[in-house]
Design brief:
By secondary structure, the protein is α/β, with parallel strands linked by helices. About 30% of the residues lie in helices and about 25% in strands. Helix 1 crosses helix 3. The chain is globular and about 70 Å long.
């Protein structure tokens, strides 16, 4: 069944109950607030921006948007791009697109104007829905992006080159449009994160979305009494597919704008959130704030918070150990996934396996996993190879890119993830690194994630990325870009001394103290780092000759 059926069921069964809440602590709320909202505000506080909608309103908004699109000629198989920051309109627009039989095409909010145009062309987008933060970027390419496309603006003061969402849907029917959908219908196009190159368009069917929803609810036992705090951007499969657990259970969710530790704890406290998904930097920021005394647990109501799950990158075991010292009653979980496998959950640690933190886990609900060598043969236990996954959430293809599809998708449905992994004697899978990030130094394979995990044990290191730098003799050497914790100092000699416990060939040969750039889903932007430091390092060597 299509994922839209869950929304219609929730409308029927829980229509008057809250579905979504939008919080923006950095924006003052100048509207009149309800007594319920007012009760959440402390006397000394200024009301931050807060809105909420019920399941009935959610479904009706989706229906109005769907009927508007149908009235403008959008048909089954057309594509509607969404370029918006997290807000109450995001998910109703997404579901409205699905209800027409068109494909939802979420865009990364960090895209430049040229990337917006590139992705719109690649996905053959028919409609672009965008928010106020993107007026300038869209306007700069409007002559090209508006060709054959309807531009819909969501916000106040609609620019002249677009049409107003509010005006377009005002008189549209709130009844379901009645378009028949099946599991085999195309549903969405997502884009790869671009950490290994320019984004590819990833095509998924409705079956994939439904499987993602079931997997999330099963893994985290999301129930009617839960409240999920969603912080990452909804354009990404990770955020949306975790929220799908709330959709399946008919429970509340909070969309939080902002990642400061005090924003997160305040949202959990005021909205009584029970499940929170964090990226590693956000969890570390919370712990650092608690360690320094900048935040105190006693200032918040956190007893109902039962689950902290974390992913999008390898999770240092030391972080979870620190977390459980402050939150000993928490269940902790990590998830692994790709946009090509419809987000998180194809590999899943499980709350019962917190002793195995460091591993990404075992095959998730309905998934299979195997580790292969370069020839496609299974490796022996404990040997490194490429992680491959298979299940109902695997993509259909890279849209309009059969060559790239053939490289990663086998004829019998296995997806080659591009991640190097090993499996221990208990069957738990550990990530070693991305295939494309492996450093070949003097004939030895160095796996940056292993070196990064070691360096993160240093109490002075806030974040670290290890990349290959060109070297005349070794081919490549390991370079460590290190971000030092605020208020602390760290020298190259101290780092080198700390690394004496690493095997000699794994020790970083170059130390660079600088910020570590991450994308919106927490992944280190290694292509950017290689561009920033790789050429510079090569030039330095050439000048020495």
């Amino acid at each position: 069944m299509p994922i839209t059926d869950y929304l219609e069921r929730n409308h029927m069964l829980y229509g008057n109950e809250t579905a979504l809440i939008e919080l923006n602590p950095e924006q003052k709320d100048t509207r009149r607030v309800t007594w319920k909202e007012y009760s959440l505000i402390q006397p000394t506080q200024t009301a931050s921006y807060r809105r909420e909608i019920s399941w009935q309103v959610f479904d009706e908004k989706a229906n109005r948007f769907a009927n508007m699109l149908l009235g403008r000629g959008i048909q089954k198989g057309d594509k509607v791009a969404i370029l918006m920051m997290n807000c109450l309109e995001w998910l109703p627009i997404y579901f409205g697109v699905l209800k027409t039989g068109a494909l939802a095409v979420p865009f990364n909010f960090r895209y430049s104007a040229d990337e917006i145009l590139y992705c719109a062309d690649l996905a053959e987008v028919d409609v672009l829905v965008f928010g106020p933060e993107f007026i300038g970027r869209v306007e700069s390419v409007v002559d090209k992006v508006s060709e054959r496309r309807l531009l819909i603006y969501v916000g106040e003061n609609c620019p002249t080159f677009a049409e107003s969402y509010r005006e377009l849907v005002a008189d549209c029917s709130s009844e379901a449009p009645g378009i028949l959908l099946s599991d085999d219908d195309d549903a969405a196009i997502y884009f790869s994160s671009g950490t290994t190159g320019f984004p590819k368009a990833i095509l998924h069917k409705h079956r994939s979305l439904m499987h993602a929803a079931i997997v999330e609810q099963k893994h985290h036992s999301t129930g009617r009494g839960d409240c999920f705090l969603c912080i990452p951007p909804l354009y990404h499969t990770g955020a949306k597919m975790h929220w799908f657990g709330s959709l399946v259970s008919g429970s509340r969710a909070v969309l939080l704008r902002g990642t400061k530790p005090e924003y997160i704890l305040k949202a959990v406290s005021q909205e009584l959130c029970t499940i929170v998904w964090l990226l590693v930097p956000w969890a570390q920021d919370i712990l650092d704030a608690l360690d320094s005394g900048a935040l105190k647990i006693s200032d918040y109501h956190l007893d109902q918070w039962r689950l902290m799950h974390i992913g999008a990158q390898p999770v240092p075991p030391s972080l979870v150990r620190r977390w459980l010292k402050y939150f000993p009653h928490h269940q902790c979980d990590t998830n692994y996934g790709l946009s090509a496998s419809i987000g998180p959950g194809c590999v899943h640690l499980g709350v019962e396996n917190v002793h195995k933190v460091g591993a990404i886990g075992v095959p998730g609900y309905g998934w299979e996993c195997r580790i292969e060598d370069a020839d496609g043969n299974p490796v022996r236990q404990g040997e490194a190879g490429e992680l491959c996954v298979k299940g109902p959430g695997v993509m259909t293809c890279y849209y309009r890119n059969p060559e790239a599809t053939k490289e990663v998708l086998t004829e019998d449905g296995w997806l080659r993830t591009g991640d190097v992994a090993v499996q221990d004697e208990d069957g738990f899978i550990f990530l070693v690194d991305r295939k494309k990030d492996v450093i070949v130094s003097g004939g030895e394979n160095l796996y940056p994630v292993q070196i990064e995990d070691f360096l993160r044990k240093n109490d002075k290191i806030y974040d670290v990325a290890v990349i290959g730098l060109p070297d005349k003799r070794q081919g490549e050497i390991a370079g460590a870009i290190i971000s030092v914790k605020e208020g602390m100092t760290l020298t190259e000699d101290e780092v080198n001394a700390f690394c004496q416990d690493l095997p000699r060939y794994k020790r970083p040969r170059k130390i660079i103290f600088a910020p570590v750039p991450r994308n919106a889903t927490g992944k280190i932007e290694k292509p950017l780092l290689r561009k920033m430091y790789g050429q510079e390092h090569l030039v330095a060597f050439e000048n020495q000759e």
